[in-house]
Amino acid sequence: MRRSETENMCVPAIELIALTKRFRKADEPAVNAVNLSVSQGEVLAIVGGSGSGKTTTLKMINRLIEPSSGSVRVMGEDVTDVDPVVLRRSIGYAFQGVGLFPHMTVGQNVGVTLQLLGWTKEAVAERVSDLLAMVDLPMDEYKNRMPSELSGGQQQRVGFARALASSPQAILMDEPFGALDPITRDALQQEFRTLQKELNLSVVLVTHDMSEAVLLADRIAVMQKGAIAQLASPQILLTSPVNEYVSRLIDTPRRHSEFIESLLHGKTRGGIE
Predict the structure, then answer these.
(1) DSSP annotation of 11
(2) How many CA atoms does the CB half-sphere of 199 hold within 13 Å?
(3) pLDDT tens string for the chain (273 positions)?
């Protein structure tokens, strides 16, 4: 029986149920019985140190990695019931380094998924124009440029446009701002949040940067040794860390903020103590 529109609005955009991944020859699971849900229109950040399982968790959502046990649901549908290629075309994916095809123009990169979906040439051109305008890259100026002719920030914008091309049910983001200079990163983070709210996008953002997670996410899941150590809003996470590991993760951005504040008020000359 098909769900009504109201019922669909109540279904989590993404749901992870006891999701587990064990790699061969590993003593412990990389991801251990993770339960998470992402509401429609929510940004969920997954934060943790290297080897905590955050990227493995992300890649199991679109079946780039198959779980050992547990399940993933996208808009209520088990992803194992969906062809992996079809699934990946319905979920946007943006990551550090962007991954643009170097032999394709900007327009071709943005429209490649639409062509694979069988869109007409005219429909692809119209959608590409809309998407480039959305990410502040005018069609006439950028459509025929090659990726090598773009700055890092411009490449990332093209990557976002490509991720949004098929109006995906959700967006997966893996350290998308990590390789950018601070000024470009700040600008793109603000643009991303504005766009996310306008389009009501459901987003899973993997980052090692707690400051970025606090800035962009509605909720933050902290991973430790493959499990969820804490899941909370940024406000609760910052004021009530559940253990020493979470406390250490949030301590660095807090100390940086306090240090900058002391500089502005002339209380110190430099050098974080």
Answers:
(1) S
(2) 24
(3) 455 555 566 799 999 999 999 998 888 999 999 999 999 999 999 999 889 999 999 999 999 999 999 999 999 999 999 998 888 888 988 877 667 889 999 999 999 988 888 899 999 999 999 999 988 898 899 999 999 999 888 888 898 899 888 888 899 999 888 777 888 888 888 888 988 998 899 999 999 889 899 999 999 999 999 999 999 999 999 999 999 999 988 887 666 666 666 677 666 555 545
Domains with residue ranges and CATH for the chain: 11-264 (3.40.50.300)
Q: Which phi and psi (to 5°) does residue 230 adopt?
A: -160, 140
Contact 9, 169 (CB under 8 A): no
User: Which amino acid is located at 41 in the chain?
Assistant: G
Helix axes 182-199, 152-164, angle to 10 degrees: 20
pTM: 0.85
Cα 23 to Cα 266: distance, rounded to the nearest angstrom: 52
Structure tokens at 187: 């600008």
How far is 189 from 192, CA to CA, in rounded Å? Answer: 5
**CB atoms closer than 10 angstroms to residue 167:** 10
In this structure, the number of other CB atoms found within 10 A of the CB of residue 230 comes to 20
Rounded to the nearest angstrom, the gap between the alpha carbon of residue 7 and the centroid of all alpha carbons in its chain is: 26
